[in-house]
Write a structure and sequence with these properties.
single chain, mainly alpha, elongated
């Protein structure tokens, strides 16, 4: 049987994808330092870790460590290139001596070493911010952490400190805001546990509306389910007006807000609001924690998008990232207000009933306006 397979084209050098611009900047800088060893004094604050390539890091470490030869000897003999190669080889196996000559040929102008170094520092700043944003996203989405909120806020603090450092290292310039299109926010978790806790918050708040006055730290947008957030707005509106709060008044308020549909009927609303357990503050804290993690996840994705846009200068990257972190600050302030309360100030529920998860409601927290509901 004849073989009709079409032969594949040979893979040539022209098929190798071009490296990013920083690759050529690193080559030009190292080439400049190989041609002019004393030019390292003009490159400014630069470390081997700033280079993206492992062999470039090894070469710069050698250049920064070794003592350059005397100028007459450097002009006649390749002692400098040989010494740099010998010093870098243990940290970069397979580094050919010919590559150092390639670096020297890749440098357009050794006197421009300071400009090449600035490019290397700028790209390192981009990669570092990206790494911090990825760590922030990981902390905000890791369900196995024992205290995800604390870990996530610690990662946000580390990112903010890095941005402060970069703001001092790179000068500002006009047009400081990045024009990078932001990715859509990540989807909220609407699993059974999330839905159950949000429904319990609504039912317990309807049964004990006095707690709403001390729960201004919780907002409708903190809810994962938009309908639940809208119902919570109904509850807070009634409480703010001083109107009576119970299942029926909340149902009527929900109707006024256009929340009742064929999928969410009046009976469904009454059933949801009738199944209370625990105290509103407990469920509100769970909702706010998830909202904090969601905002941290969104912030990390926005900053990550800035770092993937090569058109952003370091100053634009810092400015955009700081603005993204500011969106997290509001939720963080509300979370810290809740968690900073002393144990005496926070509700101490009794053991949970067997039928529902979570703490039951202490009798002393029942508001006078709904005292007739003691049989609940």
């Amino acid at each position: 049987m004849a073989n009709n397979r079409i032969p594949e084209a040979d893979f040539g050098l022209e098929d190798i994808p071009a490296g990013p611009p920083v690759h050529y900047a690193e080559q030009a800088l190292l080439g400049a330092l190989l041609l002019d060893p004393y030019g390292i004094k003009a490159v400014g604050p630069l470390e081997a870790a700033h280079f993206s390539s492992a062999r470039h890091r090894a070469l710069f470490a050698a250049v920064a460590t070794l003592t350059p030869p005397a100028s007459p000897l450097h002009a006649k003999e390749p002692v400098w290139i040989n010494a740099v190669h010998a010093h870098a080889l243990p940290n970069s196996r397979g580094l050919a001596l010919s590559y150092l000559h390639t670096l020297a040929a890749a440098c357009p102008e050794p006197a421009h070493a300071h400009a090449y170094a600035r490019m290397v520092r700028a790209d390192h700043a981009r990669r570092t911010v990206r790494a911090h944003s990825e760590v922030l996203i990981q902390a905000a989405t890791d369900t196995g952490l024992p205290d995800p909120a604390t870990v996530t806020l610690s990662r946000a603090d580390s990112l903010a400190a890095l941005l402060d450092h970069l703001a001092a290292a790179f000068p500002s310039h006009p047009g400081s805001l990045p024009r990078t299109p932001l990715p859509p926010p990540p989807a909220r978790d609407t699993g059974p546990d999330v839905v159950s806790e949000e429904e319990l918050l609504l039912s317990t708040a309807a049964a004990y509306p006095a707690a709403l006055s001390s729960m201004r730290w919780l907002r409708p947008e903190d809810f994962a389910v938009p309908l639940h957030g809208a119902l919570y707005r109904c509850l807070t509106s009634l409480a703010a007006r001083g109107d009576p709060v119970d299942e029926v008044t909340v149902l009527w308020e929900a109707q006024q807000h256009g929340l009742l549909t064929e999928a969410f009927t009046a009976q469904a609303a009454l059933d949801m609001l009738a199944a209370s357990a625990g105290v509103p503050e407990h469920w509100g804290e769970q909702i706010l924690r998830r909202s904090l993690l969601h905002h941290a996840h969104t912030t990390g994705r926005h900053i990550q998008a800035f770092t993937h846009d090569p058109a952003n200068s370091p100053h634009q990257l810092v400015t955009g990232s700081r603005r993204a972190l500011a969106d997290l600050t509001s939720v963080r302030a509300r979370w810290q207000h809740v968690t900073s309360q002393t144990p005496a100030e926070r509700p101490r529920p009794r053991p949970a009933p067997a039928s529902r998860a979570g703490p039951p409601t202490p009798r002393t927290t029942r508001a006078p306006t709904v005292s007739t509901r003691s049989s609940r």
